[in-house]
Amino acid sequence: MFTTMENRDKVLTRIEELKKNARTNDPVVACINKLLRTEYGFNSPLRVLPLQLVEQYGPEILDDKKKFNEVLKPEYDVFNKEWQFHYSEFWKDILNLLDAYQKADTIDRSPFESFNYISDLMIKCERRALLLNIEPKHSNRIVMQKQKRLDGSEKQYKFLRAYWIDTDGSKKRMVMRLIGDRYSQVEKEVADLFHNRGFAVHRQYRSPQGNKYDMVIEREGMKTAVEVKRIKEDTFYDLFLFDELQKKFKDEYGMK
User: Which of 18, 154, 167, 241 has the highest local Cβ count within 10 Å?
Assistant: First the structure.
């Protein structure tokens, strides 16, 4: 089995070979070149959340400080693991695309079927790239929404938006998530993120020393505190959008 970096090197080698013989404006070559340019901007904002907590809360809650610090390393962090999984699959997707394109004549498909199959693979690669590259903070991804209550007062929401690739290959803002604008509502959203990933979540936790935390999360003998107010809002927006993009991807392709 090849590692992620080995697959990346294979992609870079094969695309350079392909470009030597490809016709001008070849759509597959253009797609892969665009994906490779996008890869330079890939980042995992999901590492930020646990690393901000390590010094503040660990020693007080757990008897074993070393064990607490280990759970907060990126390799133990569930969000970063999810991002790394998609990063690894990204290179496999491109290799599958290259195989389908370069071996189209040897596979028992009609030209029309081959065209559709390759087009679908290109869309899958671009969708995976959007999942890996959370939109820049300055983009117009947050829209304020208001809703009237029965008593006439207004409740304010934040509408998070992200791009997705439509079935025709066009890029549109198709992924959306509505979150409350109040601190308590954001806290509940964060608790749900962890709960949906198999963590036991204890909200409004009070430590034996009398300190109160927004929540303590626990799984497989590892335990840590999450204090929402100490984390920048944009970090949580990244988490929420990543979560929505993963759901969209899973609806289309299953686990992969």
Answer: 241
Average pLDDT over residues 232-238: 74
Taking the C-alpha atoms of residue 118 and residue 108, their distance in angstroms, rounded to an integer, is: 14
pLDDT at 56: 45
At position 87, the amino acid (one-letter code) is Y
Over range 18-47, report the average pLDDT.
81
Q: Which domain holds residue 60?
A: 4-253
Q: Are 109 and 29 in contact (CB under 8 A)?
A: no
Mean pLDDT across 90-108 = 89
Number of structural domains found in the chain: 1
